[in-house]
Amino acid sequence: MNTSSNEHLLPGGGVSIDALPKISLHDHLDGGLRPQTIIELADAIGIDVPTTDAAQLGAWFAEQANSGSLVDYLKTFDVTTSVMQTTEGLERVAREFVQDLGTDGVIYGEVRWAPEQHLGRGLNLDEVVEAVQRGIDAGIDDVYSSGREIRVGQLVTAMRHADRGLEIAELAVRHRERGVVGFDIAGAELGFPAGNHRAAFDYLAKEFFPVTVHAGEADGVESIRGALFDGRALRLGHGVRLAEDVTIEREDDDNSYVTLGPVARWVRDRQIALELSPSSNLQTGAIAAWGDEMIDHPFDLLYQLGFRVTVNTDNRLMSNTSLSNELGLLSDAFGYDLDDFEQFQQNAVAAAFLPLEDREELAEAISDGFAEA
């Protein structure tokens, strides 16, 4: 899929996937740092990193993350968050994050991150959110200066294992007119159900504030049920294990005959978006019940059954990937073409935490961009 210039091409037609307009809904700020930036920020504040060679550091992240365990995968974030404890570090990381999205053809992105993990050097919650927003704004200006367009919103995230959910929810709402578009909970999923943060979700519901919840990655259907019931989730972060609630009754040469369980049927019938991240789902073992290769990912099953599937990177550094790369991998595995790619982007547009008018503009931009491909 990769050419010598690292451009991703759609098999057969030679269309550049990189040039296509794309929507990114599930992309972690602390999972998208440039290796060289980590080295330079660490040096500035006196922190040791595994290696001071950028290429070797990038390879180290990919190797460590490819563990088959979400818990082990998450340990790599100790390194990235350690250099994101100052306003300078946060601004630079956020700015470069947006630049890299723009280079990949993303025209709208939502960047999620947990402010409570960035208070180690004396900053408070509002200060870190403001620092990230300054970086995002600068990155948007950079993308515009390069002749492209992009919009980016923050998804303020609370950590599942901590007890600051309501405080972080109030932080998100406090900044809703200054760049924050939604709320999320993330971190270790198994053993930390969404119901632990019911007070936060009750508050957000009263404020009519959009919510996505990590669910169906390291835990199964009951976790998804909790995200929907306790979290009132409008989207599911990953949600890949929703396929456990899909029973394949029989298959023939042309068709599969399935029965949907109550949770799967609710998600499909209400078109609650699945923020699927193919490479990450392989790395963390989220699809272990189906196999360990891309062709085993239930993405295509969910797509063919009419679920609102979206394609995401999760953590570009840890998975050594981009949105264009993820689309290319799916095309290689399932034979997707330009029409499929456009459908994935329109699915993401429909699920974006934006006003209807803005989503209509994005939908038109996607249609126009694909028509020109």
UniProtKB/TrEMBL annotation:
Q: What is its EC number?
A: 3.5.4.4
Record Pfam families = A_deaminase
Superkingdom to which the source organism belongs: Bacteria
| An example Gene Ontology biological process | adenosine catabolic process
Checking InterPro entries in the record gives: A_deaminase_dom, Ado/ade_deaminase, Metal_Hydrolase
Enzyme group, top EC level? Answer: hydrolase
Q: Name one GO cellular component term.
A: cytosol
Necessary cofactors = Zn(2+)
What are the UniProt keywords, alphabetically? Hydrolase, Metal-binding, Zinc
Where do the Adenosine deaminase domain residues begin and end? 21-367
A GO molecular-function descriptor:
adenosine deaminase activity
| SUPFAM superfamilies (UniProt xref) | Metallo-dependent hydrolases
The UniProt entry's sequence similarity note says:
Belongs to the metallo-dependent hydrolases superfamily. Adenosine and AMP deaminases family.
- Protein name from the UniProt record: adenosine deaminase
At the highest ranks, the source species' classification is: Bacteria, Bacillati, Actinomycetota, Actinomycetes, Micrococcales
